[in-house]
Amino acid sequence: MNKVHDVVVAESHHRRVLWHKPMALLSFVMALNVASMPLKAYLSESFPWQVAQRTNWTVFPSFEEYNSETSRILQAYYTKEYFAHKGKFYLDRSNATTLMHWSMSIPRNVSPAALASILIQLPGAFFYGDGLRNALAAFALEISLSSSSSLAKPPVVYSRCQHVRFVGLPLAEQCVWFVPDTAATIETASIQVAVYQTMLNWQNKVFLWAKLVFRLGLTAVVCRAMARQYYCHYIVLVANFLATGLRDKSIHALEIYVGDPTPVILSNTWISLAFVVDFWLSASAVGESLLAISQHEDLWAFHLAILYTSRSVWFAYFFMRLCTYAIKKYRLEESVVPLDPTMVAVASIVYTAPLMVINTTTALMHMEYALWSVAVTAEERDEAIDVLPVTAAVTIMLGALPLLFSVTVKWYRTLKVQGEHCRSITELTFDMTLVAQRRMHPGRGPPSAVLRQRTEDALDLKQRLAFKAFGLKRRFSMSGGGSIYTLHALNPAYNRMPLFNHRGSDCFVVCRSSKHHKYDCKMRLSLWRSLDLQEKNPALCLHKCTTNHLDCLSRLDATACPTFKPADSTSLCIHLGRQASPWIL
Q1: Which pLDDT belongs to residue 540?
Q2: Residue pair 356/308 in contact by the 8 Å Cβ criterion
Q3: Alpha-carbon span 372 to 386, nearest angstrom
Q4: Quick check: is 585 in a domain?
Q5: What gap in Å lies between CA 263 and CA 126, rounded to an integer?
Q6: Which residues contact 300 (CB under 8 A, 6 or more apart)?
């Protein structure tokens, strides 16, 4: 059994508040995880002080001169001996260059079709543009058809380079060169070829420092948002309870189980946009990660690259937030189901990792081949690639997957419900369920059954695991809470963010009765900010009174007060508690 440490915050009229330390620690860890996301990029990226200033020196009168001079410079620095000491995959951080060294076997008299299948197996082949692919295929074919005398020492080095751009701006220079084995003879069935590849990223130290400052600022914004939009609400909860207590005056102590602040942050439009912009500004680092994913020799680099590319989950959060505006505008709330942001992050790693591996190591990379030259002029199709079209396509694809999943789940549930004899939603206790249901279907009269839902069944994955570990679900009975989810279930129009599940940010409190002197029940408190008050829809409008109530918590019901007079039995109002309490049962 987990020990709960009692920390007395204050005491008024024999009331006190205690914190469940393990849940508070878990909440802090989750908050730290979100706050550190901008700086986690440096697990793979280089810090500004690790990289030398690199300026674009590849301006030449012709592509042939560029190819010859760039190949010469890189081959002179990254020699065979240099590669031998660095392994098959190495990131030269000081020069912002990714190095790859591989061995390829080219059969004698190989067909062009067979050559194509051989070349896509090379690490880094994902980035080969039209000109680079054609040149390497010609090199390989020439080597395949060569005689033993043509492979005599000194060996011939076959090399080709290409420009890599982003939105037309220089991003990197990629060079590949083949060195065939001089020991091969005309009788040899295949020829071994040493393949060397470099991806030289252009780095501007001013830009790198600016990006670091941007990430530090984003970290500060995230921390401030968590403090102001989530954790400060616990201060209100504690102060209200100590000052006024709950409506049940026999409860003299609360034990607070702190929730997860991440749903509040992940559903923030501007924060998710900032992360998307940060990802796009790191196109060179994404390229380095894709090169690492395309090889399996350096497993540490491979797994770091997978972790880095999982940052693309922000495409999903931003896309979900954008779609929320359209869903609310066109009243499509009933077409989707809310998704747990944490599960979206887990799913992102699950589907992003295989997707990246498959795209960088199999023939599926031909889909990207078709896009590399879309943003390049016809004259430069054989000389350069622009990664903008692929970046945009990946952004849209990864961003749209959660929406597609949400719509599919809703469609499946609808079919399942239609196949049942009697439609029902799991059991929900809520004192105004009949009113809310009549507001959803006006004119139908009272429903045939009261909907009930056990709050334990509405927990997200983190809560289920934590409560099972800490015994909260097992030791205490539920006495109330989850009313806003009742309203969401009965009419999704009341959900302010229909694609985001905010259950993880709920706060659970265990109550101690002065009569029994023991903790005997628990309550679920939710932030009523996740409610859409439907202020522009008179038929569904949830009123918000301005009476200075002295209750510890806010409440949602049809009770009259000095500033709210229910027009009929279906009128609902949010009665704000003391200090405009953001918590509601």
Answers
A1: 82
A2: no
A3: 6
A4: no
A5: 35
A6: none
Highest mean pLDDT among 311-320, 458-467, 556-565: 311-320
pLDDT above 90 as % of the chain: 22
**Residues in a beta bridge with 544:** 574
Residue 56 within any structural domain of the chain: no
- Non-local CB neighbours of 5 within 8 Å, separated by 6+ positions: 19, 21
Q: Does 299 share its domain with 352?
A: yes
Same domain, 350 and 479: yes
- What pTM was estimated for this model as a whole? 0.83
pLDDT one-digit tens code per residue, 433-472 = 444 444 444 433 333 333 334 444 466 777 777 777 776 6
Q: Tell me the chain's radius of gyration from C-alpha atoms.
A: 31
Characterize the bridge pairing of strands 555-557 and 572-575. antiparallel
Taking the alpha carbons of 573, 579, 583, 584 in that order, is the dihedral positive or negative? negative
**Residues 144-186 pLDDT 10s:** 777 554 555 556 788 999 999 998 889 999 999 998 876 655 5
- Of the CA atoms within 13 Å of residue 101, those in its CB half-sphere come to 16
Contact (Cβ atoms closer than 8 angstroms) between residue 513 and residue 252: yes
Residue 198 has pLDDT above 90, yes or no: yes
Verify cis geometry, omega within 30 degrees of 0, for the bond prior to 154: yes
Read off the tokens for 224: 């401030």
| CA 298/CA 292 separation, integer angstroms | 8
Contact 226, 488 (CB under 8 A): no
322 Cβ contact partners less than 8 Å away, ≥ 6 residues apart: 269
**Could you give the number of structural domains in the chain?**
2
β-strands 477-481, 158-166 pairing: unpaired
**Same domain, residue pair 192 and 207:** no
Least confidently predicted of 56-60, 278-282, 442-446, 517-521: 442-446
Q: How far apart are CA 285 and CA 170, in angstroms?
A: 14
* pLDDT confidence of residue 453: 41
Identity at 92, one-letter amino acid code = D
Residue 351 lies in a domain: yes
- Tens of pLDDT, residues 252-301: 888 888 988 988 888 889 999 999 999 999 989 999 999 999 888 889 99
Query: Which helix or strand (DSSP H or E) is residue 198 part of?
Result: strand 190-201
User: Could you give the CA distance from residue 290 to residue 276 in angstroms, rounded to a whole number?
Assistant: 18
Is the pLDDT at 512 greater than 70? The verdict is yes
Report the pLDDT averaged over residues 548-552.
84
Q: Residue 124 — left, alpha, or beta (φ > 0 → left; ψ -120 to 50 → alpha)?
A: left
Beta strands in 387-527 (DSSP E): 477-481, 507-513, 518-527
**The two three-digit tokens of residue 183, written as one number:** 């020991």
Write out the residue range of the structural domain in which residue 171 sits. Answer: 63-202
Q: Is residue 4 part of a domain?
A: no
Strands 16-19 and 251-257: parallel
Nearest C-alpha neighbor of 2 from the set 535, 573, 474, 528: 474
Q: What is the pLDDT of residue 454?
A: 43
**Amino acid (one-letter) located at 208:** L
Q: In the predicted model, is pLDDT for residue 475 greater than 90?
A: no
Q: Are residues 279 and 292 in the same domain?
A: yes
Sign, CA torsion 165/166/169/172: negative
Which is more confidently placed, 444 or 23?
23
Q: Say whether pLDDT at 217 is over 90.
A: yes
Instruction: Determine phi and psi for 94, rounding to 5 degrees.
Output: -60, -30
C-alpha span between 207 and 483 (Å, rounded)? 49
